[in-house]
Amino acid sequence: MKLYHDYKRLYRFVVILFLGILVLIPIIFSNAQTADELNNKIDQKNADINKLEQEIAQYQSQINDLGKHKSSLNSSIQQLDLSRKKLNADISVTQSKIDKTNLKIQELSLNINNKKDIISNNIDAISINIKRINEIEQNDLVETVLSENDFTLIWNDIDNMSTLTDILRETTFKLKEAKSNLEDTRKETTDAKNELLTLKSKLNDQKKIVDQNTLEKKKLLSQTKNSEALYQKLLKDRLAKKEAFEKEVERYESQLKFILNPSLLPQKGILSWPLDNIYVTQLFGITKDSKRLYASGSHSGVDFRASIGTPVKSVADGIVAGVGDTDITCAYASFGKFIFIQHDNGLSTTYGHLSLIKVSKGQRVNRGDIIGYSGNTGHSTGPHLHLTVYAAEAAKMETRPSKACGGRSYTMPIAPTNAYLDPMYYLPSY
């Protein structure tokens, strides 16, 4: 009866395994409760984010309305105050997203631990079952059958052994499935952790921009002594300096010799948008606004509506050929904080009026990478992003002295006049 006793031991194991599963049920239920709690917290964070985003939209609408009015000290102060409120709301949204991502990572970690337990239990079960089956199969079945009187009992046990083999096969399949799910969950966790790092970096950037906004307001109040007359004089002086500086740069660029080779330029629509939300406020070339705002009568790029602190992205792969701040040597006359990128596709781009620069000269960037944040630096009648596109072989960083800026040297991208290209031709359809 050795074979029969082996079967009995095997079934005792199955019973014990079943009882073990019953013991695990409260643990699984407890984990389910924890998962429900995490999901409830995640739902609350989503509600907080939606509420804050509605608040941000209201601030943005008010900022846009202010931009339609004639510039005054009061409107400038209001714009700075609204920008600060919006930035603080942006910070709250980012912090809520960080909290939500942390909760998501906790949930994923819980799922990983559960899947690891399932895999471990399945491996143990498979290992013991295989061992028991091997022990049984090593007996001489014919000899055991001939030595027994109750053939019905033995054949029933053999039939049950076949059933057990099917169970083993199903358990193996579930093990593979659990392993695949574990790998997927681990990838989700890695992605969530990477997103968390990005959000934390963004939060730090937003706090820096809020500090800049506060300093800008203090500086404006100090310069104007809260007087509208002094503010209008300040605007007039800035405009005169800006026009003189532009004429200086235009005169130099018009003297540069460059033969544009169209065959070296890429196809239409090859660039991506530099912002997530696109609203064009001024086109390239001679426009109604360009005649009024620019000494040359022509706008050298495209302007996009972008509140202070909006992430700015590279429109294509390339190398950062230069970064800088023209306000350091010639305040309110040109790009302000800018980034200049030479792309792999035959084009170069400049991103102007930024509040914060996130890249450095020589750094390689990919299409869609956040390279900085929009702002209101340089000559700007309101927060926006200016994008210039050039033929790459013609544009380069140059340092030149400027009479308009008191003889101080400025450093910025320079290109022959005919190397400036219409960004809208290379951007997606608008």
UniProtKB/TrEMBL annotation:
<keyword id="KW-0175">Coiled coil</keyword>
<feature type="transmembrane region" description="Helical">
    <location>
        <begin position="10"/>
        <end position="29"/>
    </location>
</feature>
<dbReference type="InterPro" id="IPR050570">
    <property type="entry name" value="Cell_wall_metabolism_enzyme"/>
</dbReference>
<keyword id="KW-1133">Transmembrane helix</keyword>
<dbReference type="InterPro" id="IPR011055">
    <property type="entry name" value="Dup_hybrid_motif"/>
</dbReference>
<dbReference type="GO" id="GO:0004222">
    <property type="term" value="F:metalloendopeptidase activity"/>
</dbReference>
<dbReference type="InterPro" id="IPR016047">
    <property type="entry name" value="M23ase_b-sheet_dom"/>
</dbReference>
<dbReference type="Pfam" id="PF01551">
    <property type="entry name" value="Peptidase_M23"/>
</dbReference>
<feature type="coiled-coil region">
    <location>
        <begin position="168"/>
        <end position="202"/>
    </location>
</feature>
<feature type="coiled-coil region">
    <location>
        <begin position="35"/>
        <end position="69"/>
    </location>
</feature>
<keyword id="KW-0812">Transmembrane</keyword>
<protein>
    <recommendedName>
        <fullName>M23ase beta-sheet core domain-containing protein</fullName>
    </recommendedName>
</protein>
<keyword id="KW-0472">Membrane</keyword>
<feature type="domain" description="M23ase beta-sheet core">
    <location>
        <begin position="298"/>
        <end position="392"/>
    </location>
</feature>
